[in-house]
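Final report, closing paragraph on structural work. Over the funding period we assembled a curated collection of sequence-structure pairs, and we close with a single example.
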Amino acid sequence: MKILSLILAGGKGTRLWPLSRENRPKQFIKLDSDNTLIEDAYNRMKPIVGDNQWIITSKEMVDYFRLYVTSYDEIKSSSEARIIEEPISKNTAISIIWSAEYARKTYGEDTVMVIVPSDHIIQDQKCFESEINIGIEHAKEGRNVIFGVKPSYPEAAYGYIETKEDMVINFIEKPTISEATELIKSDSYYWNTGMYVINVGTFIEKVKNVAPETYSLLDVEDITDELFLKDLYNNVSDVSINDVVIKKMDDLIMVPFTCDWNTINSWKSYYEQSEKDIDGNVFEDNSIAVDTKSSLVYSEDKFVSLVGVENIGVVSVDDSIVVCNLNESEKVKDLFQTLKNKSRKEVNYNNIGVRPWGTYHVLEEGFGYKIKRIKVDPGHKLSLQMHHHRSEHWIVVKGTARVVNGDKEFYVNENQSTYIPATTLHRLENPGVLPLEIIEVQCGSYLEEDDIVRFEDIYDRK
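Its predicted structure, as stored:
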């Protein structure tokens, strides 16, 4: 009998904006440890299943794994661990159904799959292992399990499970605060953790019964074929596993999850799980408060001061600041949508760009200029390219650069520079074994990323 984990790592975490964005989704941030949330999820499951772990994420996020997950190379080189790339980002229904069918075809009907999100904070490892193993024992008998946490306060950002003894009888999706206040008065309601343990054989049989149209799309010989996956994801609805399958199960077991647990899906939930001072405040080292209670400051760079406030959350990152009532912090998702409707670039992109060759960070920009710090990984190089509307000055601050500049090719060492006029063919390469870092100063009438004409590219980008 095979036991493996499936880590869901495709979400974007809109309630944690501006920290979480499209170019740095929630699972790639560090909140409670020196590791990213996705690394913590992987390490948490390792004592239970070893390297038998599948991480499923969208294709567009794979570069972020390389940048933010220090164990990326270890995972990629493992014969058991897999990073599964979805062609496009979809909700959890197709992710879990496809993965369960893949596991069934690969390892057999009695395979047990532990399904966990990538954004949980769980401090007690021994408790976690004990609770998950209870679910695994049920799954070995052909049962399917969901884990629920006894609510400690009314939370509108969580779904709720209604139970009778150990059986699930109903789901309530993200109630209002007043509704949640009534629900937690009863011993029958639990927070939905989004963690499951399934027997893939009985789970797929249930899918055949309650979602036959979805399962019929998987009736092919090779469900891992790249062209098949593109077609599959284009033809399935963007819905959750709860809506498609879980809510329709009449024999689903709920196992109480008694460990300290938090899923960071709002700034309120981050505040709740954080250590507080005598006034109930959660502050960074670069913040101070006077006559302030029950408030949160999360600041990556700026010094923040609060005076005479209560239940306030302040989140400050490189290019954006959010101030909110902590009790209504789930409405940050509405702010996110408002920014999206206004086509604000801050909604999806901060000043850091991830590329196959490394990263860039926009340090400053104004009318007619932009300053970037560019890091190129050892052995990597940018495309052979040119720009119509901008010139570039490159100053090497770390490492050695091999540069193509027009019809010349030469090396630029630390504390040296080169100038590339507009419309000039050029390329930057790191030929060494150490990271290359340059400061790039762009000048011109148009400085956006789409002013790139590529002539050669080892990453096959257009």
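The mean pLDDT is 89. The CA atoms of residues 314 and 323 lie 5 Å apart. We thank the funder for supporting this effort.
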